[in-house]
Design brief:
Layout (H helix, E strand, L loop, with lengths): L4 E5 L6 E3 L2 H10 L5 H10 L1 E2 L8 E5 L4
Antiparallel strand pairs: 1-2, 1-4, 3-4
Helix pairs in contact: 1-2
Length: about 60
């Protein structure tokens, strides 16, 4: 079973959805250009914001309606 993760980025109403922490990490490093420290903090704590990152990011498991 896949545990889907939603990435919510400050100022963007549309979450990005990932099928694993590894996929999310690759996106955070390559597309969002977060530092490894900021990306790991987000994966470990579910959120990161300035000064560690440019904007606020939240990563949470997909919840059923």
């Amino acid at each position: 079973m896949i545990t889907w993760l939603d990435l919510l980025v400050e100022g963007d109403p549309h979450p990005r959805r990932f099928d694993s922490r590894e996929t999310a990490l690759a996106y955070l490093l390559r597309v969002e250009r977060l530092s490894e420290e900021a990306a790991q903090h987000l994966l470990d704590h579910g959120e990161v914001d300035p000064p560690l990152a440019r904007r606020e990011y939240r990563l949470q498991p997909l919840t059923s309606p």
